[in-house]
């Protein structure tokens, strides 16, 4: 039933997307030739533009499919979907312009194409979020549910059930758990243990289930082959939830080693050459632009530091960066000049006597961080990434905090996911690392843009920046 519903929904989604794309195209033509293009200017006829729509609709639908916009969306994120819509539209724009170049069509309005790309992106995002809200409401009312069973009563099973309970809009209904080591009738958050794993085939034949989640504990993986065979025999979709999430990351990925699947412990999107190149190019362009735009602010800050306290304007401090390599990080000096041993004593605390009056202001407003734009330009840092730490603290935390050193698999940043979520200054290092690892494993260009946007509103002025 769920599979049939999914096929019907996908077909309906294709029709809606086609309609939205067509309306966006027509609206773009109307805006372009009603408000922007003078009537006296030579232009192609309306039928010519509409003829192009015959090719645009199927091409864009294929792009939407290629960018995974017709995958099941019960638990997919809105941000990821919006990012895929953006990429599909940008590729469509480039293809459209390329085709016009190939057929040597000079009169087709390029301005209208850019307008269409923007309007179509916004329209599709709005349309899909409206549909998402409607589906969430339907599922909260007990309709369009996905019925499932769990095999194995483990920490993985408890975590799965907890997330389903917290998100009723996903539409999952767990009918029970099969486990050989838990007494029949026991409950976890309202989900009963129905019996042992030997009863799986009987339960599958007697119930119309959509999915089985295998959540065996580590000690019971020897049963896996038999359980998977029973599920495959019944034709029920099967998923595997490993009971060692403290080792496996949130986004593992597999490689094919001549037919042997290899599960990688850590997925780092920025280890991909293309992703790293895109991020580095963005860093260079934006850092140059920011240096030019904020040069009056930096000059003013430098003068304030120089005129109010003795010592150099720029403070250099060794930090640990990409692949554990040390580098010199730049900041406007906000403290009285200290000898190296005093400087290593500890972090800045609230009302720290070492901080100057100007220093207190530029630290609170993050103006002291602006020289790091030159670190970004040099390649020591990125605009967005985990904040770099001093070598002595790296050595301390690598022994105390699991996965701490994972942060050095990417360039450190001027701002980051932890900072915009409030973990800056005198806050939990463990929580900060959790956010850093989330960023490393879930990096997208869109996430970087989001963090930069949030930094403007949440990151510059911070109560924990002493």
Summarize this structure briefly.
The chain has helices spanning 2-36, 46-66, 78-102, 110-140, 155-166, 200-206, 224-234, 273-293, 295-308, 340-343, 357-364, 372-378, 391-400, 417-420, 429-442, 445-459, and strands spanning 146-151, 172-178, 187-188, 191-195, 211-214, 237-240, 253-257, 260-264, 314-320, 326-332, 382-384, 413-415. By secondary structure, it is α/β, with parallel strands linked by helices.
Key features?
12 strands; Rossmann fold; 6-stranded mixed beta sheet; 466 residues; alpha/beta
Q: Percent range for helical residues?
A: 40-55%
Kindly provide the radius of gyration, computed on alpha-carbon positions and rounded to a whole number of angstroms.
Answer: 28 Å
Q: Overall pLDDT, averaged? A: 83
Query: What can be said about the biggest beta sheet?
Result: 6 strands, mixed
Sequence of strands across the biggest β-sheet: 3-4-2-1-5-6
**Separation, N- and C-terminal Cα atoms:** 59 Å
Strand residue percentage: 5-15%
How many structural domains are formed by the residues? Answer: 3
Organism: Porcincola intestinalis
InterPro entries: Bact_transf (IPR003362), EPS_sugar_tfrase (IPR017475), NAD(P)-bd_dom_sf (IPR036291), Undecaprenyl-P_gluc_Ptfrase (IPR017473)
Keywords: Membrane, Transferase, Transmembrane, Transmembrane helix
EC number: 2.7.8.31
Describe the fold and architecture:
This protein is an alpha/beta fold. It has 3 domains: 2-140, no CATH class; 146-245, NAD(P)-binding Rossmann-like Domain (Rossmann fold); 273-459, no CATH class. The chain is built from 16 helices and 12 strands. It has helices spanning 2-36, 46-66, 78-102, 110-140, 155-166, 200-206, 224-234, 273-293, 295-308, 340-343, 357-364, 372-378, 391-400, 417-420, 429-442, 445-459, and strands at residues 146-151, 172-178, 187-188, 191-195, 211-214, 237-240, 253-257, 260-264, 314-320, 326-332, 382-384, 413-415. Helix 3 runs antiparallel to helix 4.
């Amino acid at each position: 039933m769920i599979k049939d519903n999914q096929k019907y929904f996908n077909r309906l989604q294709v029709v809606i997307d086609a309609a939205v794309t067509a309306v966006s195209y027509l609206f773009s033509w109307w805006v372009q030739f009603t408000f922007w293009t003078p009537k006296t200017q030579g232009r192609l006829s309306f039928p010519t533009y509409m003829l192009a729509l015959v090719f645009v609709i199927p091409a864009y639908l294929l792009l939407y499919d290629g960018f995974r916009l017709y995958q099941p969306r019960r638990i997919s994120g809105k941000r990821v979907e919006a990012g895929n819509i953006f990429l599909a539209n940008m590729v469509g724009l480039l293809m459209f312009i390329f085709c016009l170049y190939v057929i040597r069509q000079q009169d087709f309005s390029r301005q209208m194409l850019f307008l269409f790309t923007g309007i179509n992106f916004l329209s599709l995002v709005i349309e899909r979020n409206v549909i998402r809200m409607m589906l969430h409401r339907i599922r909260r009312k007990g309709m369009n549910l996905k019925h499932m069973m769990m095999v194995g009563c483990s920490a993985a099973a408890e975590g799965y059930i907890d997330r389903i309970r917290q998100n009723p809009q996903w539409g999952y209904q767990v009918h029970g758990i099969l486990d050989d080591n838990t007494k029949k009738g026991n409950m976890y958050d309202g989900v009963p243990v129905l019996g042992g794993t030997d009863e799986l085939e009987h339960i599958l034949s007697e119930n119309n289930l959509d999915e089985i989640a295998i959540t065996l504990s580590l000690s019971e993986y020897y049963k896996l082959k038999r359980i998977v065979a029973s599920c495959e025999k019944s034709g029920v979709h099967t998923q595997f939830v490993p009971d060692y999430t403290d080792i496996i990351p949130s986004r593992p990925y597999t490689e094919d080693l001549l037919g042997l699947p290899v599960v990688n412990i850590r997925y780092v999107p920025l280890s991909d050459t293309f992703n790293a190149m895109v991020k580095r190019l963005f860093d260079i362009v934006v850092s140059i632009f920011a240096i030019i735009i904020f040069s009056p602010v930096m000059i003013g800050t430098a003068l304030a530091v120089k005129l109010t306290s003795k010592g150099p304007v720029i403070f250099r401090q060794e930090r640990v960066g990409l692949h554990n390599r040390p580098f010199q990080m730049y900041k406007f000096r906000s403290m009285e000049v200290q000898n190296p041993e005093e400087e290593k004593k500890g972090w800045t605390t609230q009302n720290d006597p070492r901080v100057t009056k100007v220093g207190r202001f530029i630290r609170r407003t993050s103006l002291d961080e602006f020289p790091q734009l030159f670190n970004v330009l040099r390649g020591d840092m990125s605009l967005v990434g985990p904040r770099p730490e001093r070598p002595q603290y790296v050595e301390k935390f690598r022994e105390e905090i699991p996965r701490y050193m994972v942060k050095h698999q990417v360039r450190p940043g001027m701002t980051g996911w932890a900072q915009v979520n409030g973990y800056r200054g005198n806050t939990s290092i463990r929580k900060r690392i959790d956010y850093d690892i989330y960023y490393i494993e879930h990096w997208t260009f869109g996430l970087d843009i989001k963090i930069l946007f949030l930094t403007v509103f949440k990151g510059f002025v911070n109560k924990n920046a002493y």
